[in-house]
Design a protein that fits this description.
Elements: H1 7-16, H2 28-49, E1 55-61, E2 66-67, E3 73-76, E4 81-93, E5 98-104, E6 124-128, E7 131-135, E8 142-150, E9 154-155, E10 158-166, E11 171-174, E12 191-195, E13 202-212, E14 217-220, E15 229-230, E16 233-236, E17 248-251, E18 254-255, H3 265-280, H4 285-299, H5 309-314
Parallel strand pairs: 5-6, 9-18, 13-16
Antiparallel strand pairs: 1-8, 2-3, 3-7, 4-5, 4-8, 6-7, 10-11, 10-17, 11-14, 12-13, 12-17, 13-14, 15-16
Helix pairs in contact: 1-2, 1-3, 2-3, 3-4
Length: 327
Amino acid sequence: MTVSLNVSELVTETRGLLDEFNVEGITTNQILECLNRAQKQAVRIAARQVSSIFLGFSVLDSDDFTSGDDGVNQAEMPSGVFARMIKKIEVRTTGGTVVREVTPISVDHRHPYISTSSSSIPQFYDVVGTKIRCYPNLASGYELIVHYTKQPDTLVLPQGQINTINSANSYVLVDAAWTDLTTSTDSRNAFINFIDYSTGAVKGSAQIVLLDTSTKQIKIKTSALTRSTVFGRTISTSLPSSLAADDYVCVVRGTCVPQLPDGFSDFLVQHATVALKRRVKEPSEEDYAALRDIENDLKKMCHGRESTMRIRKANSILGNALRRHYL
């Protein structure tokens, strides 16, 4: 299994690329800010190359729709959609099978399909602001499955890598003392995420009841939680059943392992380095060239492209080409 770099390691690598720049004057928070900006750009690239990456879905039924000023029913876009990147929308009978895929349409061409009734199955949709609108309106007894690119979790520093798990007594022992955790209920840093060391996925969230620096023990609260959710995450009263040694603990705000494919680590570091150098003075042409080379390599990733029409027609294995296709 691939072991991905954690955020602390990315910070160290970024500092290493700052060369002769005044690295002491650049704070860890500034590096984290630039790494998170780089991550957003990386998600834009990855989502275009691999349709399944950061893929999320949400179900909307007719009760989620309200009538807009023009009589067209509209529903709020699901929370957590990144850059309004809707992949596709399907309509199905409630809890049943998919009837059809709903086709995106521009505002300029929607007029013939506008209906103020709710007795039809939508054929088209558009997105205006944060609203999804259907043409014709979604009928009762049907629901939409909205597939979209998810907002990436914020990159934060690890607060320890797990050595020992004691589920019966609801605590873990970590390899190093934390820097940002607290038991104070006035702080969101009293809430933690448990992070898969390989994928960066959040396995679960909990509230801290005890921090023992001598044994490096983090004990979670099993009752009388201060909050049931933080940043939209459900706070549990038990350790995740899938929690394993080598997983990480971090503050509830994000993840300490990037959820991108491992090949994107170089891009995150180089993108952050260029952004940080721009704060001091103009980066060198070599810095920009290195970033362009890495970005171009990522855009040429083959995984996820085989199913596109251009690739199928150009590939003798996936289908015979009717004409020459240049990639």
